[in-house]
Structure formats: C-alpha cells, structure tokens
Write a structure and sequence with these properties.
The protein is of the alpha/beta class. About 20% of the residues lie in helices and about 20% in strands. It has two domains: about 110 residues, FAD/NAD(P)-binding domain; about 80 residues, FAD/NAD(P)-binding domain (3-Layer(bba) Sandwich). It has three helices and six strands, in the order βαβαββββα. It has a six-stranded mixed β-sheet, with helices on one face. Bound molecules: flavin-adenine dinucleotide (FAD).
Length: about 200
C-alpha cells in the first residue's frame, strides 16, 4: 500500500508529511515515507510510542533524522481547496491548537469488520472478527450451535460448511498474501465438506 503512494511524494517538496497513527506500523513504512519527504511527522495521541511499539522500532525512528514524533497531538481539522494545504493540530494537555502547512496526511487507525449483518448465526469475537476452527473451542468444548461429532475444521465457522478467510477472520494475518493463501486452502476444505454431505 505504500509504494503506489510514493510517486506523488516528490523529493524536495517543502511541505511536511504527517502520519497519524493508532497502531504500530512496520518500521519500514515510516522510513520509506522519510525518503520521499523533507520531514515526516508522526502524530501520536498518547504519551509516547513506547506503550505500543517495540524498542528496536523506536530506535530505528530515532536514527532517521527527518522523522519527528509528536506525542499528545491530535489532528482536529484539515484545510484546502482542491487538495490538502493545512492541518490543525491540538495538544491534548493544554488544549492549544496550531495550524501547519501539510500536503499529505496518512491515517493508520486500524480496521473494523462489517459483520453485524451476521447476527447470532455466526460467532464473532468482541470486535466483530469471525471465529473459526480451534478458536471456537472453549475449554475444549464445541460451540452450542455445533451439531456434528467432529470439531469445527480449520477456517470453518460455528456453522458446519460455512468457512471464513482473510482479514475478517479472527486471528488472521492481515496481509494480501495470507488472504490469498487462506482462500486457496479453503477451496479444498469446501470440497471435503461437500464430499461428506452429498
Ligand atoms: C491502509 C492499508 C494498507 C495495507 N497495506 C498492505 C500491504 O502493504 N501489504 C499487504 O500484504 N497487505 C496490506 N494491507 C492489508 C490488505 O489490504 C488486506 O490484508 C487484504 O486486502 C485482505 O483481503 P480480504 O479479501 O480478506 O479483505 P478485503 O480486501 O477487505 O475485501 C473484502 C471485500 O468484501 C466486501 N464486502 C464487505 N462486506 C460485504 C457484504 N456484506 N457483501 C458483499 N461484499 C462485502 C468489501 O467491500 C471488500 O471488497 C493493507 C491494508 C490497509 C487498510
């Protein structure tokens, strides 16, 4: 996702790039941005990166001279006509606001699964990600809705024959290659399931 953005991050552009983060980013992403911008500023709402990021990643950021980390800072407004020209930031302890020139604002705030429509039919975790396979077994016990002698299979939900793959699956690695891999594997499981019920 980073590389497609890079061409319009022009070298020597005087404006700063802002990264708004909630979750830890791979260190490579921040360093990647820093190669294309005069300055990259990470805005962190909390006190520091230390609570959510590994020490070695923080060290890598500190070693990159054009990356700055601003704690206690939120973006509260963005400005511009045809494209971004300024952002308004707010310091959380003082409440003071400041407007800064900016041509880019990258927001990394996680993802929310849109699974409400499944209702009670398919079991989900408290964040809405769909449970499957061993994740459905609580204390070794099968889910109440499960009707078969066998345990739910890998990638199989609490309803026999309904499978889940990709980002929406609880515990999945949120990467394209993982989603594609799970998708390829699940086809085999579906064939196995159909062979038994037909
Ligand atoms: C900002 C960002 C950067 C990322 N960078 C990388 C990266 O560099 N490398 C990498 O490997 N991964 C990256 N990822 C993760 C990667 O995009 C995901 O892991 C991958 O797209 C997951 O694929 P998926 O098919 O499981 O889900 P998605 O790609 O989210 O596809 C799900 C699809 O289902 C559709 N849908 C949802 N609800 C319904 C419904 N009720 N009916 C019909 N359709 C529905 C959605 O519209 C969507 O098209 C990034 C993700 C984000 C958000």
């Amino acid at each position: 996702m980073i590389s497609p953005a890079a061409p319009w991050l022009r070298h020597g552009d005087s404006a700063w790039r802002f990264l708004l983060r909630r979750k830890p980013l791979a260190s490579g992403r921040k360093v990647h941005f820093s190669k294309f911008a005069e300055k990259v500023v990470m805005l962190v709402r909390g006190i520091s990166l230390a609570s959510t990021m590994s020490h070695y990643l923080i060290e890598q950021i500190e070693k990159t001279s054009n990356i700055e980390v601003w704690p206690h800072t939120s973006v509260i407004a963005v400005h511009g006509e045809s494209r971004l020209s300024e952002i308004t930031i707010q310091c959380s302890p003082s409440g003071k606001t400041k407007e800064l020139p900016a041509t880019s604002l990258f927001i990394f705030i996680g993802a929310q699964p849109r699974t409400e429509w499944l209702g009670d039919l398919i079991q989900r975790d408290d964040r809405g990600f769909i449970l499957s396979g061993p994740d459905l077994l609580i204390g070794g016990k099968k889910p109440q809705s499960w009707t078969l002698d066998r345990d739910p299979g890998l990638l199989e939900t609490n309803v026999p024959g309904i499978f889940v793959v990709g980002d929406v699956r609880h515990g999945s690695v949120k990467r394209v290659a993982s989603g594609v891999g799970e998708g390829a594997v699940v086809v085999q499981f579906i064939h196995q399931y159909l062979a038994k019920v037909q």
